[in-house]
Amino acid sequence: MSRIVYVNGEYLPEDQARVSVFDRGFLFADGVYEVTSVIDGKLVDFPGHAARLDRSLAELDMPSPLTSGELLAIHRELVARNNVTEGMVYLQITRGAPEDRDFVFPDPAETPQTVVLFTQSKGLVDSPAAQTGLKVISIPDIRWGRRDIKTVQLLYPSMGKMMARRAGADDAWMVEDGFVTEGTSNNAYIVKDGRIVTRQLGNEILHGITRAAVLAFAREAQMQVEERPFTIDEAQAADEAFITSASTFVMPVVSVDGVALGDGKPGPVARRLREIYIEQSRKAAV
Ligand code: PLP
After folding, report:
1. Comparing C-alpha atoms, which of 73, 56, 81 is closest to residue 9?
2. Would you indicate the residue range of the signal peptide (predicted)?
C-alpha cells in the first residue's frame, strides 16, 4: 500500500511527491532531520525532537518554517492517514531550492525551505534484536566537527553500517583520539560494576533525545551514571553495553570488535532500562 507523505503543505501519495533537483538538501546535504518513534499510534518524546530541530535549524541559520504545534499536527495527521501503530515519523527540512546551484545560502525570503515528512511502519517494542543483542565493531570517526547538529550528511554513518555488515556485525562505534564518540546512528554506553558510562555532551556527538530520557530514568532508578569518554579496551572489559536511539529505544550490545561482553547475552541493566523506557514512553506519548 502506498504511503501518504507530506511535502511543503500537501499530503500526497508517495509516488506523486516531488522535490526539485536544485534542492540544497540534494546538492549540498544542506538540511536537518528528526526521527520520532510511534508506539500505540502516539508520538514518543515529541517535545524533545521539536526542540532539537529548532536548535539544529538555528545553528545553521535556517528559519523555522513551522511552529512546534504545526509540526505536531502534521506528525499526527500522517500517523492517522497511514494507520501507523508502531514505527517512525521521518521529518526533513532543507534550505530549499533556489533558481540555480550556488554555494552561497539563498535569501530565505525568496527561497522557502523544503519540508518533507513520511512514516515508516515497523515493530519496535518486540524487536528480535533486543533478545539477542547487537555485535558492534569500531571504526575511526572521520565525520565533521558539528555532530551536535542533526544534519542529513549521513554518508559516513551509512558507510560505517556497511563496514559493520561486511565484518559480520550489526553496527559500528566510532572512535576519535582513542575514545568512543557514538554509534553510527545511536549513542553508546557501557556498564561496569553497575555504573553506566556514556560520553558527555559536546559537539562530538548528537545530543540524543532517547539518551536524555534514558539517563533521567536511570538516575530516578538510583543507577549510577558517569558522563565521560571511554575506550574500546574499556568497552571490551565491561560487564555489558547498549545503544539508544529513537528507533531502537535501548538496545543491548553483546560484543565489541569480536570480544563478547559478560556472558555474551543482553545484560540486566540494558534490559531493565529498555523496559522502563518503553513503559514510560507509552504513558507519556502524545
Ligand atoms: N547519534 C547519532 C549519530 C544519531 O544519528 C542518532 C539518531 O539518529 C542518535 C545518536 C540518537 O539520537 P535520538 O535518541 O535522538 O534518536
Report:
1. 73
2. none
Distance 100 CA to ligand 1 centre (A): 32
- Scan for cell 501507523, then name that residue: 84
Domain 4-121 falls under CATH 3.30.470.10: yes
Residue from 92, 187, 203, 207 whose mutation best tests the ligand 1 pocket (most atoms within 8 A of CB): 187
pLDDT tops 90 at residue 205: yes
Distance from the CA of 245 to the center of ligand 1, in angstroms?
A: 5
Residue boundaries of the structural domains of the chain: 4-121, 128-284
Can you say how many angstroms the Cα of residue 179 is from the centroid of all Cα atoms in its chain? 20
Q: What is the pLDDT of residues 136-186, one digit of tens each?
A: 999 999 999 999 999 999 999 999 999 999 999 999 999 999 999 999 999
What average pLDDT does range 206-233 have in this prediction? 98
Q: What angle, 0 to 180 degrees and rounded to 10, lies between the N-to-C axes of helices 46-59 and 68-81?
A: 120
What pLDDT was estimated at residue 1? 64
Cβ < 6 Å from ligand 1: which residues? Answer: 35, 182, 185-187, 206, 208-211, 244-246
